[in-house]
Amino acid sequence: MTISFKAMPAADAEHLWNGGADAYGRQPETMTSDGPGYPCRHCLKNIDAGEELLVLAYRPFPELQPYAETGPIFLHKQPCRRYAAEEVLPPMLASTDYIVRGYGRDDRIVYGSGAVTPTERITSHAEELLARDDIAYVHVRSARNNCYQCRIDKVEVRAFADAALAI
């Protein structure tokens, strides 16, 4: 098994860039970055000082339910390219540690799966969690504020082999 780091879906970002409302039905706020600390959830890079960004409520779950956490995120105000190097730890994950937590196929937290994890162990810890039958995907969240950073999915090696044969 390998894993892939997933940015927010392009359709979600495009909705917001085109004037759409956030998870609370409000228009995103615009501000200017004063330096590191504003990670864009679409390109998974930090937003440089002087660049405009959107601050908004985001819910990375398909529908409302008690475990569908909603919280603040940042997004480049101008469209950016979605993160594509999915097998590589995203560059915005520059803190010393993050919460890494598993979710079931029902999009609910799998109790006991969350742990504050040193950044250098995110990949190996996510692989351990995703090897479990009860965990469908993993979130990486801020260890200080619980803000959503990105999602991690398992990619079966067979899927890579099938894709290679199709080329």
From TrEMBL:
User: What name does UniProt use for this protein?
Assistant: DUF1203 domain-containing protein
Mind telling me which InterPro entries this protein's record contains? DUF1203 (IPR009593)
- What Pfam families does the record point to? DUF1203 (PF06718)
Give the species this sequence originates from. Answer: Neorhizobium galegae bv. orientalis str. HAMBI 540
